[in-house]
Amino acid sequence: MTGTPEPKHYRALFLSDIHLGTRGAQADLLLDFLRYNDAETIYLVGDIVDGWRLRRSWYWPQAHNDVVQKLLRKSRKGARIIYTPGNHDEFLRDFLGTHFGGVNVVADAIHTTADGREFLVIHGDQFDVVVRHARWLAFFGDWAYVTALNLNTGLNVVRRKLGLTYWSLSAWAKLKVKNAVNFIGKFEETLSAEARRREVDGVICGHIHHAADHSDFGIHYINTGDWVESCTAVAEHHDGTFEVIRWADRRKLPAVAEKIGSARAAA
Ligand SMILES: [Mn+2]
């Protein structure tokens, strides 16, 4: 890493899909990011720790510990930390509404920007089944939509209790590599629709390891990306505007390839 970047302070920072506990996690780059970037509120938007992977084989190097310590230290220094678990750290979904070390664990959150807009903050795996069956659900309407969401949640609770792996849309989509771009679009469209359904101004999510900031579906859609390949975070500036930060680019490191195929494999 070259030079010393100017330390930045944001109103809020959003991070997801770090996958600590896997060899893919870019913990060193993330530590470097956390060293130079601070915020009043830090949202951990799911898949921070990879519980599924850890259960199969323990992999927890010092750098992964340092990331956790660094976040807890920020909390002790006054940062508000809100953790919305994803499918890989869904063991934390048994602890919704609790907090540990100053970290609040909630299913999802509403973030209000400096200029008063409201954003739904959620990992996004909750909508896998909707993304997969979007066409049929649209045909059957709202009842089917809500039922599908509940089934998705219920099924995965059962799978978890049985010790089975999470059924992931991403793994399914991986079989259809040609449809990768289509899959990202469908996910973005579904999450945008959910923001509209909740009557907020936009959504901030993760899960598909594809950072974005646009209004292609008529509402503000923001994705935090990941720290496996793209090393991205989303920041809210003090005036309420958002920015996708690509840390590897910022640090002038050789570009980390953003391969749609392998990114999806880990989502
Ligand atoms: Mn995920």
Automatic annotation (TrEMBL):
GO MF entries: metal ion binding; UDP-2,3-diacylglucosamine hydrolase activity
GO cellular component: membrane
PANTHER family in alphabetical order: BLL8164 PROTEIN, UDP-2,3-DIACYLGLUCOSAMINE HYDROLASE-RELATED
Protein name per Swiss-Prot or TrEMBL: UDP-2,3-diacylglucosamine diphosphatase
Positions of the Calcineurin-like phosphoesterase domain: 11-210
Species per Swiss-Prot/TrEMBL record: Stappia sediminis
Claim: Manganese is one of the keywords in the record: yes
Coiled coil, from the record: none
UniProt KW keywords: Cell inner membrane, Cell membrane, Manganese, Membrane, Metal-binding
GO biological process: lipid A biosynthetic process
Pfam annotation, one family: Metallophos
Gene3D superfamilies given in the database record: 3.60.21.10
SUPFAM superfamilies tied to this protein: Metallo-dependent phosphatases (SSF56300)
